[in-house]
Amino acid sequence: MNILFFAALACFPTATPTDSADPVDSAEDSGDGSETGHTGEAGFAGTFDKYKTDSTASLRSVYSSGAGVYIVGTRGTAWVGSAESFAAYSLPPELSGMDVNDIWGGGKDDTLNLAVAADQGMVAFFASGAWSVYNIGARDNTAVAGDSLTNIYAVGDNGVFHFDGGIWSTLATPGVALFDVCAYASGAFVVGAEGLVLSCNSAGCTELDSGRSANLRGVACASSEDAWVVGDQGQTLHYTGSKFESIGSDTSATLNAVFMDGDEAVAVGNTGTALLYNGDDWLPMSTDTEQNLLGAHGISSNNVWAVGDGGVALQYKAN
Which terminus in the chain has less CB density within 10 A, N or C? Predict the structure, then answer.
């Protein structure tokens, strides 16, 4: 695997935290602000508010640190949020103009760590003020996740890979498209086409029976016995360590991403679809957009960001 290092000069502008501040008037439809920061409009479990990123790119993933919101997307797009606006930040030059498909993060401020997955086999880490860049195959990487920069999983057209802080190891090459990965301290879940779910650790992967044939596109996990999987046809599956339980969402839209926080979760998908799981049921949320939503992350189930096509960046922040 090839690796390059360089100093990250002015990569992340100093900013008042977006994910702990109130939504601002730079939001496209915020008006006087009277519709922001509330739990939900009538008939909805919660309401997302729009922010302007000055981008028309497809925004594919977001990491909310508690002291900044980091977004990546097509054509090398990268934004960091502040209380007033979003500003571009610098990705490694090897990723210039390239589609960046996912971002994982840990920590904030001086302890901020990031990992991004991009086309053409590229994965990059940010830590201690510098980027490290790896190439783990010729084909595109779709997702990356870990619990530290010495325990990272990357998935995509090349297969499933694990990084232990020194080397990348190939764990599986399933032969179908892989869409997402989540990680916990001792393992990871990978989801893909045709109902594929893999349970992985640093030694390899085992296929689980999801009971589904639809494409599964998003996954979030807290442990080997607690994970959410979402996908085509509104699939929402909860894994409890022994089986997948389907918990109906009353939507047929494709769901692309899910964020979980304890017993609660938020899922987002095509045509502006967003859902809140309150511990018992999936309930609709208001997004005021028809754009496809591709990524979601938050610091809690009461403070979640979603991003998607057309440069859309949304925040749900409960009272």
Answer: C
Domain count for the chain: 1
- Look up the CATH number of the domain holding residue 254: 2.130.10.10
The whole domain housing 88 covers: 2-317
**How far apart are the C-alpha atoms of 131 and 139, rounded to whole Å?**
21
Q: What is the pTM of this model?
A: 0.90
Exposed/middle/buried for residue 67 (C-beta within 10 Å: 0-12, 13-18, 19+): middle
Q: What is the pLDDT along the chain (319 residues), one digit of tens a residue?
A: 554 433 333 344 333 344 443 343 333 333 333 333 446 677 899 999 999 888 999 999 999 998 899 999 999 999 998 546 789 999 999 999 999 999 999 999 999 999 999 999 999 999 999 999 999 999 999 999 999 999 999 999 999 999 999 999 999 999 999 999 999 999 999 999 999 999 999 999 999 999 999 999 999 999 999 999 999 999 999 999 999 999 988 899 999 999 999 999 999 999 999 999 999 999 999 999 999 999 999 999 999 999 999 999 999 999 7
